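Bump. Still looking for HTH hxlR-type domain-containing protein structure tokens.
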Amino acid sequence: MQRTSFGDMHCPIARSLERVGEWWSILILRDAFLGATRFDEFQDSLGIAPNMLTRRLRALTDAGLLERRRYSEKPPRYEYVLTPRGRDFRPVLLALMAWGNRHFAPEGPAMQLIDERTGDAVEPVMVDAKTGDLIDRKHHAMHAGPAADARMRARADANLRKRAQERSASSSTSPRSE
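Sorry for the wait, here they are.
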């Protein structure tokens, strides 16, 4: 069965999934953030078949998230190091970790983000880099960008109309202050 390619879609989420949407890729990136760089380290950590690991490392390298560097001439051996593009994936991993801890870890968190100055566990959130304001559904909505195609604009506009209807419905049922 042929896999659908998302690379040509005008959606930044779809284009991102084209690069990291396969679960092994995300787990390889997780391990790279935890310090793994060598093939055997990834394989030992993940228990992944060598041929699958080779394909995923090649795809992550081709996508510019990892850089393949030779560390031994004889025999030739390589390590895989996060690139700036790969390091930019960190907030996505932290968001997945927080979401997984919140919704799928009844036994408690197996991995946490710790403020090393205080030793306290922290909960990652998304904020506007310009204002520092917390991004929330009440005040922020996805709009079509300048490069959006007609399909993307239609989806975004439908969402904005739905949000407007929800606001209108909630304001008509809310008690008015005098």
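The radius of gyration is 21 Å.

Edit: fixed formatting.
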